[in-house]
Specification:
mainly alpha, 2 strands, elongated, 346 residues
Length: 346
């Protein structure tokens, strides 16, 4: 029906969301069966709420390859910023040429500026599929994907602690104050994790050269725009959907923290911190500095060169060089020469 109302856009959306309904509902039902087997009420909000969290973990695990591409793209964008600035100085008067040269630089360096958006772009259709499943199951008892009508009704009416409907939202709290409180907490958590994740990237894993210029301005804009978008839109999300997005943000924050800590971009604060940790770890295990941290290797090299300089031959006087380096004093050499002249005169 919605496809007929919306026309071509509705038809496209229907064909995109239909397979996602089956994927999302299949994963959720698998988790729901598991939680039911360990003793949770199949009709309760706990089993369905935990199923949504389980769905989130499965999706984020499947998106790890895209996250790796995102990290590589972000790192490449940071490293080529000095070259981008040079192009801007050189072709700032010719925007068309600047765009051509910038795209050529991206191509030559294997950088895709859109790769950093892949994880969130891939999640949006899944997010909308879950949103419609929760919304229509609650309002109409409509089943999507592998959900039966009975399961759809259970899902739509499921309540946490017997008081908080998963389908309720801050703007549609069904007259329950606790719903608004929980929804507000989840929206704040979703907003805070989004801000912290972006802030963590800029403060610890971006070299100084990348903190200025157009790319840095875009990152700073996202730092404040994305949390506001989530905060404004989040008040209309059902509690079940807020569970999904908050869990996803926590996953992103933890995953990025691990990457920044263990594989930081060169020349960043995170890279310096890792070198310091490696040095201390090497000292604790009694390892040589060369095996512990790269920073200590550069400090040892000048000390290895100084002894070689002290072993150079001693400088000799002109008289010593004339006598083959015998080391006799110049005065003795002059007396022997005078004695030879006197003997010849006699």
């Amino acid at each position: 029906m919605s496809a007929l109302v919306l026309g071509p856009l509705g038809t496209i959306g229907h064909y995109i969301l239909t397979p996602l309904y089956y994927a999302v509902s299949g994963v959720m039902l698998a988790w729901h069966w598991l939680f039911s087997q360990i003793g949770l009420d199949p009709e309760g909000g706990a089993s369905w709420g935990l199923s949504i969290i389980g769905l989130t973990l499965v999706i984020r695990a499947a998106l790890i390859p895209l996250f790796v591409r995102q990290i590589k793209a972000s790192r490449n964008m940071q490293l080529i910023q000095p070259k981008v600035k040079e192009l801007q100085k050189k072709y700032g008067h010719d925007r068309e040429r600047l765009a051509q040269e910038t795209m050529k630089l991206y191509k030559d360096s294997g950088t895709n500026p859109f790769a950093s958006c892949l994880p969130i772009l891939m999640q949006m259709p899944i997010f909308f599929a879950l949103f419609r499943m929760v919304d229509q199951a609650a309002k109409k008892g409509t089943a999507h994907g592998f959900l039966t009508e009975t399961q759809a009704k259970e899902f739509g009416k499921a309540e946490l602690f017997g008081k908080l409907p998963l389908a309720a939202s801050f703007t549609d709290s069904q007259g329950i104050l606790a719903v608004q409180i929980v929804a507000a907490i989840l929206v704040l958590a979703m907003t805070a994790t989004t801000f912290t994740t972006q802030r963590q990237l800029m403060s610890k894993n971006m070299p100084p050269d990348a903190l200025t210029g157009q790319y840095a301005q875009q990152q700073k804009m996202l730092l404040y725009v994305l949390p506001v978008v989530f905060a404004v839109g989040g008040i209309a999300f059902p509690i079940g959907v807020l569970f999904y997005w908050t869990t996803s943000n926590l996953w992103t924050m933890g995953q990025q923290f691990w990457v920044i800590r263990n594989n930081p971009a060169p020349g960043t604060e995170a890279a310096k911190a890792k070198e310091e940790r490696d040095r201390k770890k090497a000292e604790a295990h009694g390892l040589p500095a060369a095996e512990g941290a790269v920073a200590t290797v550069t400090e040892v090299e000048p000390e290895d060169k100084r002894p070689a300089q002290r072993q150079q031959p001693k400088r000799q006087t002109k008289a010593q060089r004339q006598k083959g380096g015998t080391g006799r004093p110049p005065g003795g050499t002059q007396r022997s020469q005078n004695q030879k002249r006197n003997g010849n005169q006699q």
